[in-house]
Amino acid sequence: MRRSLVVGNWKMNGTLASAEALAKGVIAGLSPSSADAAICAPYVFLPKLQDLVKGTNLALGAQNVADKESGAFTGEISAAMLSEVGCKYAIVGHSERRTYYGDTNESVAARFCQALSKGVIPILCIGETLEQREQDQTFAVIDEQLAAVINAAGIAAFAGAVIAYEPVWAIGTGKTATDEQAQEVHHYIRQYLAAKDQTIADNMQILYGGSAKPDNAKGLFAMPDIDGGLIGGASLDADSFLKICHSV
Ligand code: 13P
User: What pLDDT was estimated at residue 161?
Assistant: First the structure.
């Protein structure tokens, strides 16, 4: 039985004070019946949040990780550094990184491997743009994004990873995929993995991301291949995020 997981991606929002207040609010509202929960916070807030989440049910994550181990890579943050500040997870390949900062399938695969090598669970984001969906390329895009990482890391590595399906057209647009649209792609992803390793496919947590909100989370999470969510905007408010955590 796969456990449900709800992850907040705070993106580039907040202040140290608001981040602490938000984390405290989330911690106070989690209950044993909630999904497993994590927050991916801006790097500079992580040390403070590490202290706050210690001994609680809330896990910590980062929004990216370097594609190299260490060295002269100005501005990058390594997987070892993330591990040191208590990160259980690191998002890799978010569409905003791919679109605005030049992440490629290859560099995403390298980030994925770096995270794993230091015991940080990569949350691999994949998904198509509106144009790609309209041209019936959704599955081809998913194939390509998954294949790049499987080729670099090997299918066995996915036992220590999470996948997030985030249709780019649904991110921050208020336009959520319908339960059926999301399920169709989640099922496709699981079948793709199953062709390589059935056990990995059966155990893989596949999260949905893209305008997930308290009022649509229940329907999405009820789908057989949707194991939780990667939540942007709605994770910036403790009540909304908690409602989503309680929707499983
Ligand atoms: P929104 O929930 O704001 O659409 O963002 C989704 C996302 O990008 C999570 O990584």
Answer: 98
